[in-house]
C-alpha cells in the first residue's frame, strides 16, 4: 500500500494500521451523494466512477478512477458525489477521524495526500477539456486514448483496450447521447482508428488517434 508515496517505514506502518482492505463487486455503490463522509478511499485494483445527480434528474459522470487513485472528498462533512464500482474492485478504506489524528502527529503525511489531490485536479482539467471539445469524434477518440494509459486495461503489444465502463457511462461522462456514442464508435471504426472486438473490447490505433487530436 502507498507504494508511490515517499514515506519512511514508520509512516507506512502508521497508515496501514488505520486502513482496512475491502472488496466491492461490480456496479456496487460505495457511498451516495450527500451521505455523511466517514471514509477516504484508495483503489488497490479495479475501477470506480464518480457521478453527480442533478436537480432535474440527469446524471453526470465527472470522473473515472483507477488503481492508486484516491477519492472520497467532502464538503461540509458530506460526500459531494456518489461513487460506484465499474468492475470487481478492491479498496483501502481509511476512516476520516483516524486520518485527522494521524496527520496531527505526522504532518508530512498530509503533504503526500495533497499530492493525490493535485493528481485528481489535473484529471478533472483533462475531463473539462475533453468534454468541451466541439467535435464529438475527438471527444470519444480522446477518451479512448486516456483509457489506454491504464496498464490494467490496455495491452501495449496487441493494442487491445478493455473498457471498464459501458456506453451509457461514456455518454454521461462526455455529455453526449447514448445513440451519439454508438454512432461515433462506428465513425472511428470507419476511419480505421479502432477495431471493435466486442461491446467493451477494441483494438485502437493510439498513434493515429494522437495525430488526429493534434490537428
TrEMBL record:
Chain ranges of the HTH crp-type domain: 134-208
Instruction: Identify the keywords attached in UniProt to this record, alphabetized.
Output: DNA-binding, Transcription, Transcription regulation
Q: Write one Gene Ontology MF term.
A: DNA-binding transcription factor activity
What Pfam families does the record point to? cNMP_binding (PF00027), HTH_Crp_2 (PF13545)
Which domain of life, per UniProt? Answer: Bacteria
List the record's Gene Ontology CC terms alphabetically.
cytosol
SMART domains, per the entry? cNMP (SM00100), HTH_CRP (SM00419)
Could you tell me which residue ranges the Cyclic nucleotide-binding domain spans?
8-72
Q: Know the name of this protein?
A: cAMP-binding protein
Can you name the source organism? Gluconacetobacter entanii
Q: What is the lineage of its organism?
A: Bacteria, Pseudomonadati, Pseudomonadota, Alphaproteobacteria, Acetobacterales
Amino acid at each position: 500500500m502507498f507504494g508511490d508515496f515517499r514515506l519512511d517505514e514508520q509512516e507506512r506502518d502508521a497508515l496501514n494500521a488505520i486502513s482496512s482492505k475491502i472488496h466491492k463487486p461490480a456496479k456496487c455503490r460505495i457511498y451516495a451523494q450527500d451521505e455523511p463522509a466517514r471514509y477516504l478511499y484508495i483503489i488497490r485494483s479495479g475501477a470506480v466512477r464518480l457521478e453527480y445527480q442533478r436537480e432535474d434528474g440527469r446524471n453526470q459522470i465527472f470522473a473515472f478512477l483507477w488503481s492508486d487513485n484516491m477519492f472520497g472528498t467532502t464538503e461540509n462533512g458530506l460526500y459531494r458525489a456518489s461513487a460506484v464500482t465499474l468492475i470487481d474492485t478492491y479498496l483501502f478504506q481509511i476512516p476520516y477521524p483516524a486520518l485527522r489524528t494521524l496527520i496531527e502527529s505526522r504532518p508530512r503525511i498530509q503533504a503526500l495526500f495533497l499530492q493525490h489531490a493535485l493528481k485528481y485536479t489535473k484529471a478533472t482539467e483533462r475531463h473539462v477539456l475533453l468534454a468541451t471539445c466541439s467535435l464529438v469524434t475527438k471527444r470519444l477518440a480522446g477518451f479512448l486514448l486516456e483509457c489506454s494509459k491504464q496498464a490494467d486495461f490496455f495491452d501495449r503489444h496487441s493494442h487491445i483496450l478493455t473498457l471498464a465502463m459501458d456506453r451509457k457511462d461514456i455518454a454521461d461522462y462526455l455529455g453526449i447521447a447514448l445513440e451519439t456514442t454508438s454512432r461515433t464508435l462506428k465513425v472511428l471504426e470507419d476511419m480505421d482508428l479502432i477495431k471493435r472486438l466486442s461491446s467493451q473490447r477494441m483494438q485502437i490505433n493510439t498513434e493515429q488517434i494522437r495525430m488526429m487530436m493534434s490537428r
